[in-house]
Amino acid sequence: MTNKIGESEAAVEAVEAVEAVEDRQLAHLLDAVFRKYHYDFRSYAAASLKRRVRAALIQLRCQSVAALEEQMLDDPKTFTALLRYLTVQVSDLFRDPEYFRAIREKVVPYLKTYPSLKVWVAGCATGEEAYSLAILLAEEGLLERTLIYATDINPESLRTAEAGIFDVERFTRFSENYLSAGGTGSLSDYYAARYSSALLDRRLKRSILFSDHSLATDSAFAEVQLVSCRNVLIYFDRQLQDRALGVLRESLCRRGFLGLGNKESLRFSPHGPAFRELVAEERLYQLL
């Protein structure tokens, strides 16, 4: 009983502490993260980061941002835990099915003209989008000549992605998405279920290279025909958005394709004039 009371009091104190997350405290924390661990969140949108830091304070039971910073600097495990809050790791197979249908119908005909293909999924989280594209390309007869780069800044997420094991209960929704995205078979053809888990087909994994990459600090590393970077830019401030779009643009071959999230746009970016809208409602663009 005493332990439960103590835990309850700690949770209340943490909730009270989160009300005091100010710009200067957030800036100091992010500077410490950059100096110690070389992850740069300093140009991420402040409002979103404040929400995530508040959640981290409660779950990690720190009574202030300063206490969280001190604990993080002393204990790398605390940083690993904090990283889960600072990065967004929510996705589904064939999330936003219309996007994948548009790729199948409008982009794939161009991709079929290349003897070999490279695709980049930037901000891949736990890998669902990369596997979705692999399935789509397999059904279009392109996967065997394709290499998919799937990158993220969170090593824990990358390990999950590389394992390719997901909760089997999620596959009812995944299957609905797959069919809405124009799937030509059954999603069950691409995974094996055992108990509460589903293991994705190794044929998909062979075409995907999962690796670390930060749009905040790293540069383009390959020339690709398609970049899919969805629901990443919305967490950046304008300056970092422009930097990231520059990296994505530099990675594309001539007439290459760029896919963004449904709340993202090139409309106000200095890189916008370099692209034409291919499917405006699905934020698919083609480099001129």
Helix content: 40-55%
Mean pLDDT, as a whole number?
Answer: 91
Query: Can you write the helix and strand succession as a string?
Result: HHHHHHEHEHEHEEHEEHEEE
Q: Write the CATH fold name of the largest domain.
A: Rossmann fold
Rg (C-alpha, Å): 20 Å
Read across the widest sheet, the strand sequence of neighbours is: 6-2-1-7-8-10-9
What's the story with the biggest beta sheet?
A: 7 strands, mixed
Structural class: alpha/beta
The global form is globular
Instruction: Note poorly predicted spans.
Output: 4-8
- End-to-end Cα distance: 67 Å
Top CATH class of the largest domain = Alpha Beta
The total number of structural domains is: 2
The CATH superfamily of the largest domain turns out to be: Vaccinia Virus protein VP39
Strand content: 15-25%
CATH architecture of the largest domain: 3-Layer(aba) Sandwich
How many distinct helices?
11
Strands, total number: 10
